[in-house]
């Protein structure tokens, strides 16, 4: 009897070992760039620390990159404060550190203006009519605070928390309403909390909290197209379908004919990409194809699977930027973990006309991923300024880069 018991233990341990070995081989072989420390500090590779012919990050002709700020672990969302003497130059959320930091135009921390003791802060927004009114999205709530006042942080909306994706991103739209994206609680599932995997809009005091779009697994960042005024969002596809499925996406997110009557559905959890049915998850039988317009809205641009697209920004049509870049879209590929051969770890340029019609795609900045599959950093957010300057946050290296164009 004892021998049988011991044999059962051995078989159980062997089975678990085989299971996790197979799971690792299928899903985690390429996780190294995420979990391993960088081979060297990125600030030691950038000018003037290293000769410009040797540093690893590659940019198009006319563009140069330097270090704007360092010692910012977990740097994620950036918000321009437009150089206000009391607010500094850029606010940045440090999600893993639980704080929001304000930097001056030299990349130094503004004394006395760090907001701390936050719960996974991510999204930042500034009231366009009240320059000292700042909005912060934590995992579980949206709050606003009047800087340089005696007031405290005022909660304006509760958000679902716990499980899965915890980043919440904010932005004031052209209509003056405040928008927030809420990711799913899982890789792929039927949500129990109907507020997950959606974008909502509200008045700036949190009232009229209204569903804007659904079926968005993790639309971590979004931006408004300068001409069409429509929301463009980066959307991360699910994991564990192999190296090449499903695609990550850029979606043009619109409300339905009336948000009170019908909200546009972008497909998750049963559809992905250009309305492809995820039969690996959804085993139901349908009278009609469940993934087709007008019931589900397809992606606008498909991105290689597991690239992890995050921040996105449109190049303004100003004389400080080369004309061939006007209206183009830059997207930060944070980089894969669920892929045998790592991908991403770069900034990509989508060539667009003024109406947002795609004209092609190419790398804009590459080199964060080394030849031995180690990551010097992972780009997150992109802040483009009209004066030919650009800022990029990096949560792995804990820095913000400054990109400059000079013809």
Summary?
The protein has 407 residues and is mostly beta strands. It has helices at 2-28, 32-35, and strands spanning 63-69, 75-80, 90-94, 99-103, 123-126, 133-137, 141-146, 154-158, 168-172, 178-182, 198-202, 210-214, 221-224, 231-235, 248-253, 264-265, 271-272, 276-277, 301-303, 309-314, 329-333, 346-352, 358-365, 379-384, 389-394, 399-405. The strands form 7 sheets. It has a 5-stranded mixed beta sheet with strand order 9-10-11-12-16, with no helix packed on it. The protein has a 4-stranded antiparallel beta sheet with strand order 1-26-25-24, with no helix packed on it. A 4-stranded antiparallel beta sheet has the order 5-6-7-8, with no helix packed on it.
Features:
4-stranded antiparallel sheet, Neuraminidase, 2 helices, 8% helix, mainly beta
CATH class division: Mainly Beta
Question: What is the name of the CATH architecture?
Answer: 6 Propeller
What integer value in Å does the Rg equal? 22 Å
* Structural domains: how many: 1
Overall 3D form? globular
